[in-house]
Design goal:
heterodimer, A: mainly beta, 10 strands, B: mainly beta
Chain lengths: 107, 120
């Protein structure tokens, strides 16, 4: 199975900051990676797919990059509604494993 | 529009089984595979398994294999996930999540989630 490791587990930031979350795969997943945002009590929502493609309707302050085994999610100019938990997930082969999540907190 | 509507919360005793349903509408039932994801209280997302509704081919997490079964009913446009020999560690919200589209295997639409509580 491909393991996905996110860092950091928790991130404290302020409105207006730019933050980066990293996701590493235990073997190459090419670019078959998605990023999801989940708010407490809510269903996860896709932000980025194919490592760098922005889902329709998602603000352009969200961006993704990377290929192979290392990927990043960057959120520019943080807004209050961005404080949530973020997960990466590969979908190159079964099982489609998720990273353990990164909780973005208000500083 | 695409909708995934899951069955209601369940409380089960250890050793029992649970069957969660996910009724879909707004698209061709057999077009896209359906996945199941679970989330224990305060924890992250865990992929449980998937089913191809066209062929009924399934794949599941190795650590759950043997206890989890995924099915579909083409007459009612409903997917099912059944888990047997429940343990307290299976307490979680279970989501159905559909792949986004053809060759778009990230998860697009999700069900609202079903809380399964395993407690004696």
């Amino acid at each position: 199975d491909i393991q996905m490791t996110q860092s950091p587990s928790t991130l404290s930031a302020s409105v207006g900051d730019t933050v980066t979350i990293t996701c590493r795969a235990s073997q190459s997943i090419v670019g078959w990676l998605a990023w999801y945002q989940q708010k407490p009590g809510k269903v996860p929502k896709v932000l980025i797919y194919k490592a760098s493609s922005l889902e329709s309707g998602v603000p352009s302050r969200f961006s993704g990059s990377g290929s192979g085994t290392e990927f990043t999610l960057t959120i520019s100019s943080l807004q209050p509604e961005d404080f949530a938990t973020y997960y990466c997930q590969h979908y190159i082969s079964y099982p489609y494993t998720f990273g353990q999540g990164t909780k973005l907190e208000i500083k | 529009q695409v909708q995934l509507v899951q069955s209601g919360a369940e409380v089960k005793k250890p050793g029992a089984s649970v069957k969660v349903s996910c009724r879909v509408s707004g698209y061709t039932f057999t077009a896209y595979s359906m996945h199941w994801v679970r989330q224990a209280p305060g924890q992250g997302l865990e992929w449980v398994g998937m089913i191809n509704p066209n062929t009924s081919w399934t794949n599941s997490s190795e650590r759950l294999r043997g206890r989890v079964t995924m099915m579909r009913d083409t007459t009612t446009n409903t997917f099912y996930m059944e888990m047997s020999r429940l343990m307290s560690e299976d307490t979680a919200v279970y989501y159905c999540a559909r792949v986004n589209g053809d060759y778009q295997n990230w998860f697009g639409p999700w069900g609202q989630g079903t809380l399964v509580t395993v407690s004696s």
